[in-house]
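Retro notes - structure team

What went well: the batch runner handled both jobs without manual restarts.
What didn't: labels got mixed up in the shared folder, which is why I'm recording both outputs here explicitly, each with its sequence directly above its tokens.

Job 1
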Amino acid sequence: MATYVNNLRLKEIATGDEAGTWGTSTNTNLELVGEGLGFGTEAITTNADTHASTVADGSADEARAMYIKYTGTLDSACTITIGPNTLKRVHFIENGTSGSQNIIIKQGSGSTVTIGPGDVKVVYLDGAGSGAAVNDAFASLSTVDLKVSDDLTVTDDASVGGDLLVSGEVQTANIGFTDGDNAITIADGGGITAAAGITSTAASNTFGATSFNDANITNVGDIALDSLSADGSSISIASPVVINGSTPTLTIGDAGEEDTKLVFDGNAQDFYIGLDDSADDLLIGNGSTVGSNVAIGVNESQVVQFNGAYTFPTSDGSANQVLQTNGSGALSFAASPTPTAISDADGDTKVQVEESSDEDKIRFDTGGTERASVIAEGLLVGQGFSGGMFENEACNIRKTGNNDDAVLALDSDTGDASFYRFMRFYRKNANSSLAKLDYDLSGDSISLAVESDERYKTITGPADGWNLISKLEPIKYTRPSEGVTNGCGFGAQSYKQAFDDIGEYARGVTEGSDTEKWMLDYSVLVPNLVKTIQELEARIATLEGS
């Protein structure tokens, strides 16, 4: 029987086996030897904490490669176990995962090697079985010359026995020039500490105790100075000046009389510009002459001026007041005028808020005629309003004129040559319509269609037919108060009674009250009429057959 006990898990043919086919197994082994000398990638399941790379016996496997790159996305460190634990191998292993997490390489219960994100390490597996260990092959690498063409990152101590020549920057958290007592240290960020002070070899000047005769300080962070004095000429600062502290202050003056201070209160997040003399004016403007071309000014009475012409009041007004001018630049608070309106030049087209005090009304006029109003109860659209809403409707549309004038016109340009959809009806908080109003040119009809999808219905039996229709009472009637002289139909109350008599819900009936009229929709009878016709047709067929 073949075995796979070698370090590449190649097939070792037993003596006398595979007569006539050993060449195939040998060729496979040669291919796997090449695979073992090559590069492979293996993906880790997303956010997995553990992963197994077991080299397959006698078949292709990415984990067999000398250089293997692990990919995938991690949210925590992942421990990768390479098996079998009897392999004795040297591996180049790259952590090519995303998520900034480490991978930990192990073989048995022995030591492991951790590889950071983006890093590559050379490790060797000792293949000691259950106690197998993984070791860093370059943990103590000795080389004559080491050339690095890009960044070199050292995470522990670096000892240099000869000269250290750096042509670029040295970036480190701390540099110490010391024989053991930290004589000079340069900390992260550029802070320099000298135990015995720093002396200028050019002019015997030191930091702190004395001053420099001349100093050119560039490209630095913060500089703390007790004072900065000019030597007869002005002080020129080419870069921005940053004043730190919880309440940084810039004083312009001699710290005596006639000073101006700029103060930022970091706790209250307030910025102040102050004068130390209450009789002084604060002027902001342009021009080389002080006080000329003033844009903003605050005088000794704390009156604010803009452009030297507009003065603001020194105290707040009352609620709902507005600013007004006296025509000479003095602004003051005054009551807001009511009613208010936006109108055209001749005043016959306008939007007006309230016609009388606290009327709660917005009125829209064109050509001197009221066209619409928004009142407390809703929206009124049309002409000739003499009252409010009637029955708690949200919108009331009225018209004047003759019977040929439409109350509401709907014009749809979204249909095709034969079909136009004008209106849809929805239940509260629903996003699918219950009914629609369409015009069908091909059928020359206006149709009100309601939702009637069989997929959403539970059919409980046939509709009522003759048993209901026979109980209805068609009538002729007049309604003089509304001009109806020859009406034909049903009475809503008797219509409902017919449904009550057979124990069914009276569809299409809107019950009224002492102040509201009953209403009736005849169209809901269509299913009952169809059922009645079917029943009568069956009776006729029976009679004709007999």
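Job 2
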Amino acid sequence: MKPNANSTNYYAILDSDNYGILDSGATDIYLKESAPIRAINYNHVPIRVTIPNGKSMISSASATLPIPQLPKEALSGYIIPGLNKSLISVTKLCAAGCNVLFSDDKCIVTFNGNEVWQGKKHDKNGLWYVPLLPDTSPTNYILQREDRYFAGGIHQSTTMEETVKFLHQCLFSPTVDTLCKAIDNGQLIGFPHITSKLVRKYLPESTATAKGHLNRTRKGLRSTTKERIKSTREQSSDFNPTKEDIGEVQLFIGATIGEQKTGTVYTDQTGNFPVRSFQGNRCQFVAYDYRSNAILVRALKDQTDASLLAAFEDVYAYLTDRGFKPKLNVMDNQCSKTIQKFIESNKANIQLVNPDDHRVNAAERAIQTWKNHWIAGLGTLDPNCPLQLWCQFIEQGQDTLNMLRTSRVNPKLSAYAILDGQFDYDRTPLAPVGTKALVFLDPKKQTTWQSHAVDAWYVGPAKKHYRCYKFYIPETKGYRIANTAKFYPAHCKTPTIEPGDTIRLAAQDLIAAIKQNTKRIPISLHHKHTKALRKLANIFAETAGKTDHTLPRVEQPVPRVTNSPTTSTEPTAPSTIKQTRFVHQRVTRSNTPPPAMPTIHEENKQSLARAKRRERRAQPVEPPPVQKKKTVHEYQQT
């Protein structure tokens, strides 16, 4: 029988302290401080509870539910300061021998064949509420709220799923196994709040990862006529090689890993990229350093001697400055005299690979690894992002790839850490490349009615600046380094944190510090001191509990982890390339080559404009030539 809408018993707002929520995702019973509980024990062993948004809460005491019909194993729980709703674990009820039956409008808990507990389903938020008092009949009340989907005001707070997804796309969408191995090895300690357990739990299936790393199924894995062939460990040894004592530096440029010799360098070039960049680059130069296990990539305009020589000089200078000067360079048979002369001038030997023999040159395997990583990273581009910016994405792609690879010098360090030191995300923040953004415009540079931000595209980190990003500004066709921007990722959400979250976390840290210090003090405190410290902890807990927008559970019928895979794009697909604007350096009636695009800093843009105006004003203006008047005799002669 449906309750009458005018009935006070059914439609009165129920006191939330007397009711709890049946939660199938909770591992234990977590209670509010004001819930009707008994047998409170403050001398318990504190536990740390992780809530869906990734934050942690610490228990203040253990307690027991006052429901005698339930078995004793299902009555014990923990008091969590700051908890907005008491959570009753379905897992714990079933482990104690109870059966929980959910229907369309109610839930029933049975024990030994008898009904011992009954709850009611909220007709608006879809959650099941059960009474926490033995004399409260669940059929006399129905929860009513003004809001249909009560989210607790967490419209800007971040869930762990969103954070993990964002960081995964910042790292160019690597495979889960590769990412978890790098995390467990301590190669990504500079990234906040990311563990292999959280990655495996919250990271949904990524279509961008499959587009870059999906390979053909190997033969013989499920053979019915012969023994199963063991899976190759080529990829594992490529990302996580064994430690070796190498005296000299080995550099490979463009080949697969074969037998390695001490002090070797391998080089090669990739095929032309489908789109010419704004800077006129068409292909990529890949170098593999064997000792650090690092892959270095540079953009090339063409494969002429001048472009290749500039790439060789850059790579050699980069490795030499970091103590990895090459001694032997292994490369393809096509090597010009200019490149040979440069390598010999750096006191390095040259070894040319036989034609069509790709087993000796280790850069071929490096190219395959780089292309897989590169294609997966391009899969998260915004559909409207200009693909001509691809050469600006190389720096972040190279750095993130080397962060996932261990070094042969020290297997506990990544290839990036060996060359450039440990990466710090708080100092050099990242975002998915090709993300649409709004860059803040300084008020001194704004006109009267101009907007406060300009449209931009994120192209990479500003490693020489503190907490800054590098953007491409379509309006000026230039690059700008800024520290204040708003990102709009196309395939994930930007992690944010609310001020209330910060207050609650600080209060929880103070509570934990007070409780731990009172237990670690070797001398016995006076009763009034202990009481004062406990009162102080309760004040912090009450303050943290008043942040309504940081509820421990979002009361929406939304699953904790989204099972659907993430979205992605195909910027290098032939159909997409046909629609991409062709960029070249020739002046025609329908094409004007893009001008030189220097990097403009926020603080220097105004000074540069003023300097140009001063130069124009300083140039002397020549008066027009004075025409001499002709006489009558000269006029008659003409």
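One thing worth noting from job 2: The two ends are 118 Å apart (CA to CA).
We'll revisit the folder naming next retro.
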